[in-house]
Design brief:
Blueprint (H helix, E strand, L loop, with lengths): L1 H10 L5 E8 L2 H5 L4 E7 L2 E9 L5 H10 L5 E5 L4 H9 L3 E4 L4 E5 L2 E5 L16 H12 L8 H8 L3 H13 L15 H16 L6 E4 L14 E3 H9 L7 E4 L4 H7 L3 E2 L5 E4 L11 H14 L3 H15 L6
Parallel strand pairs: 3-4, 4-5, 10-12
Antiparallel strand pairs: 1-2, 2-3, 5-6, 6-7, 8-11, 8-12, 9-10
Helix pairs in contact: 5-6, 5-7, 5-8, 5-11, 6-7, 8-11, 9-11, 9-12, 11-12
Length: 326
């Protein structure tokens, strides 16, 4: 629940605010109301915040939060707040960021206030390559037969809303990636789309995944994956190419973080080798080899590691067949 709230709240921030670091806290920190620390870069200035993540539905919950956090400048990250609760928070000096993109942060020498309303743009109505479009496009590239399925099926497989499916298809039509005619939807230039997705992954999608970094005594080959678990990054590359020995493990799982940590004998650590993240695709989407290769190459390129770049080139030669990688 905490990961989902944090991810959606960060996703709703304007593009000019960059998320440069996210770290989930250990039990001791959580006992004093700090669930995570995050660093935001605004107008070139980086600010690090202690964050408490919770659902807020009435002012009594805000009062309780204020009592426990009175001695700390803690950032409340929560579900969308009503206009009344936002005003109530601001009057009582509560810094907050909610899933609708509303934010109010006041610190010495720093002020941020955002109302989560979509800007009207009469000059260009074409959707940008947003997180939602990236998620939907991943599912469509994993299974291009989805292009001719009902919107409900596309939404379920992608893990996005029906409205986002509509935006994605409009985006693909606008850039002439698929025909406008609904009867014969197909990718007109799949390679260009893949290259575009890979290029956008580090800044658009990866930074929103909010992985939980932990340290475990287990080698990745000794870890037992549950149904729905999936290796990404270096481990996936190792299984696909036998080219490298992973130094960092990236695991996608739908299990609760605490449950997975117990299974893997793991503990939170800033220098841990294992990153745990919730899958960004729908539960019903089958991750075939093509989809895993796309995800793996994206992560390898995002690492900015020369060794990983070589592994990505090998995977491209074997599976993607792009003229060049981003």
């Amino acid at each position: 629940m905490e990961q989902q709230i944090l991810s959606q709240a960060l996703d709703a921030l304007p593009e000019h605010i960059e998320i440069t670091d996210i770290h989930y806290q250990d039990t001791d920190a959580r006992d004093i109301g700090v669930d995570a620390t995050l660093t935001l870069k605004i107008a070139g200035e980086a600010r690090t915040f202690d964050a408490n993540i919770k659902r807020i539905h009435r002012k009594a919950t805000l009062d309780a939060f204020l009592q426990t956090q009175r001695q700390r400048e803690t950032l409340l990250i929560c579900n969308p707040l009503s206009a009344f609760l936002r005003q109530y928070s601001e009057e009582r000096g509560i810094n907050y960021l909610d899933e609708a993109g509303n934010a109010h942060i006041v610190q010495p020498g720093f002020f941020l206030h955002i109302e989560g309303k979509k800007r009207e743009n009469t000059q260009d109505t074409r959707p940008s390559l947003s997180v939602g479009i990236m998620k939907c496009l991943f599912a469509l590239l994993a299974d291009d037969k989805l292009l001719n399925q009902p919107y409900e099926v596309m939404a379920e497989k992608s893990g996005v809303s029906l409205g986002m499916v509509s935006k994605t298809l409009k985006y693909l039509i606008d850039i002439q990636a698929i025909p406008k005619d609904k009867k014969s939807r197909r990718f007109l230039d799949r390679s260009t789309l893949i290259q575009q997705w890979l290029a956008a992954y580090p800044q658009v999608l990866r930074k929103k995944l909010a992985p939980f970094r932990v340290k475990t005594p287990l080698h990745w080959q000794a870890m037992t994956l549950e149904e729905g678990d999936l290796w990404g990054g270096e481990v996936a590359a190792a299984t696909l190419t036998n080219y490298l020995e992973p130094e960092e493990y990236w695991l996608f799982t739908r299990d609760p973080i605490q449950k997975k940590m117990r299974e893997l004998q793991a503990r939170p650590s800033t220098d841990g080798q294992l990153l745990i993240a919730a899958p960004f695709w729908g539960k019903s989407l089958s991750i075939n080899t093509a989809a895993q290769v796309l995800l793996t190459v994206a992560e390898l390129l995002a690492s900015n590691d020369s060794r990983n770049r070589e592994a990505a080139e090998i995977l491209n030669g074997q599976y993607l067949h792009l003229h060049s990688l981003p």
